[in-house]
Amino acid sequence: MNNSLKPRFGVLISGNGSNLQAILDACAAGTLDAEVAVVISNKLEAYGLERARKSGVRAAGLSPAHYEDAAAFDRAVLGELLRHKVDWVVMAGYMRLLGSHVLDAFPQRVLNLHPALLPAFPGAHAIEEAFSAGVKETGVTVHIANEEFDQGPIIAQEAVPVLPNDSLESLEERIHAVEHRLYPEVLRWIAAGRVRVHDRKVVVDDH
């Protein structure tokens, strides 16, 4: 564990890393009193790794194809997180189910961001499914991760209306804008010690 006052986040990504960038920007601006200690991607070509390097953050690309099985890959991810003395694991567009090795090492300290109002529209195609379903409202959820996709205790949600003239692209753009604001905000709560998990439910203390 980290002995400094600032929490150290290990961020897991698989792609572009726009939510990672929002977190890095908040840390750099001083609006998030925390540190991104390492960024890990299961895709070696993920642009988010370059975002990390440009911010002076350790970037580790680990390909599952280089490991015997999923458990061996998860142990490698855990090794990087422990090496960098991470306090919380932050999944930001990490398109892979996290195994028990990491979850057990960071109990109730693994976060995930999902582009829908869970429990509605879980899974990898939430925005497209909500748009196709014709709902009038979708949104963004930040939750504690567990071994089932999009099933953990919810920390925060924010609704995003589906407008009559929306295209899939315009809806995606507005959802991402909420993600980029809400995720750093939840991390600010965590850095301030305001987030607790009790009986599998999340309690966010007042200021």
Question: If you had to describe this structure to a student in words, what would you say it looks like?
Answer:
With 207 residues, this protein is of the alpha/beta class. The protein has a single domain (8-204), classed as Formyl transferase, N-terminal domain (Rossmann fold). 35% of the residues lie in helices and 24% in strands. The protein contains six helices and nine strands; from the N terminus they run E-H-E-H-E-H-E-H-E-H-E-E-H-E-E. It has a seven-stranded mixed sheet with strand order 3-2-1-4-5-6-7, sandwiched between helices. Helix 1 (18-29) links the parallel strand 1 (8-13) and strand 2 (35-41). Helix 1 crosses helix 6 (168-191). The longest helix has 24 residues, at 168-191. 41% of the residues are buried.
CATH structural fold name: Rossmann fold
* Overall 3D shape: globular
Give the CATH level 1 class: Alpha Beta
- When the domains are counted, the total is 1
Percent helix range? 25-40%
Low-confidence stretches: none
Q: Main β-sheet: number of strands, strand sense, barrel status? A: 7 strands, mixed
CATH architecture: 3-Layer(aba) Sandwich
- Strand percentage lies at 15-25%
Distance between the termini: 25 Å
Report the structural category: alpha/beta
Cross-sheet strand order for the largest sheet? 3-2-1-4-5-6-7
Number of DSSP helical runs: 6
Topology, number of strands: 9
Quote the average pLDDT: 95
Instruction: Give, in order, the helices and strands.
Output: EHEHEHEHEHEEHEE
What Rg is obtained from the alpha carbons, in whole angstroms?
17 Å
CATH homologous superfamily designation: Formyl transferase, N-terminal domain
